[in-house]
Amino acid sequence: MSILFFGNSAYSVIDAKALHEKFGLSAVVTTPDHVKPGKPPKESPVKVFAKDRGIPIVEAEKLTAEVIEQIKAYKPDFLVVADYGLILPKALLALPTYAPLNVHHSLLPKYRGPAPVPAAILNGDTEAGVSIIVMTSGVDAGDILMQIPYTLKPDETTDSLLTELNILGAQAVTSVIERYLLGTTQPVKQDETKASFTTYLYRKDGFLSLGDDPVLNWRKIRAYGEWPGTFFIVKHRGKDINVKIKKARYNDGLLTIERVIPENKREMSYEDFLRGIKTD
């Protein structure tokens, strides 16, 4: 059986590892190395995973006709996508013998699109989940093959939730493939009337006012993590200074900021930052 896996992140590796251990992967498709001047190229976690196991690697910035021909040569039975980031064109979706599968981090049709996990935390949801769907040209609109719900912890972050959902997603997608091979899949169409959508996150989304509702600010801090991160602005000597929040905690209605990175400065405690503002 030929399975091609599409992914980039450390979260993707959770799914790739489970699939490789269960069935073996014919190849992985991931983005090229990230290059910064003066620094060695940075490989995606999926590429590192594949290299360590001798799995063939297809690196692609875009899914061009040439790349699709490379993938076609593997005669895939399944394509599996998890935290990949690029939209698969119709020509690619048509390749597998059985199906192109997507591991999506929500209980579809809720939270279609690129940021379902931050949306769940930001909205104060108590339940999230993972869906395995057949990929179509519509964004996250394909038939549902399996869903597993997950109850959020009170201090759940995007990082912790993505980790948990990919663990569940790895279990689910391996089960779905087994069902395909046994001929026992039961696809369920999504209810379009219940669909909701998420959008890409931008740096500006991470702004918060310290005078806002502490519950909402705590959700933002947990939802936005390293990207886009959260920050507030203070005025000092007539200039606005962006201050990134690195660590905070919430208890009994009180949000306490513990570690920050002021603009063009090193990380420090919030107390040191406030002391510096007063004495500078």
General description of the model:
The protein has 280 residues and is an alpha/beta fold. The chain is built from eight helices and eleven strands. A seven-stranded mixed β-sheet has the order 3-2-1-4-5-6-7, with helices on both faces. The chain has a four-stranded antiparallel β-sheet with strand order 8-9-10-11. It is globular and about 65 Å long.
Order of strands in the sheet with most strands? 3-2-1-4-5-6-7
Written as H for each helix and E for each strand, in order along the chain, the element string is EHEHEHEHEHEEHHEEEEH
Low-confidence stretches: none
Q: Which range best describes the helical content: under 10%, 10-25%, 25-40%, 40-55%, 55-70% or over 70%?
A: 25-40%
Distance between the termini: 66 Å
- Work out the helix count: 8
What is the radius of gyration? 21 Å
Mean pLDDT: 96
Overall shape: it is globular
Largest sheet: 7 strands, mixed
**Structural class given helices, strands, pairing?**
alpha/beta
- Strand proportion, as a percent range, falls in 15-25%
List the helices and strands and how they pair.
Blueprint: E1 3-6, H1 10-22, E2 27-30, H2 45-53, E3 57-59, H3 65-72, E4 78-81, H4 90-93, E5 99-104, H5 116-122, E6 127-134, E7 144-151, H6 158-182, H7 214-224, E8 231-236, E9 239-251, E10 254-262, E11 268-269, H8 270-279
Parallel strand pairs: 1-2, 1-4, 2-3, 4-5
Antiparallel strand pairs: 5-6, 6-7, 8-9, 9-10, 10-11
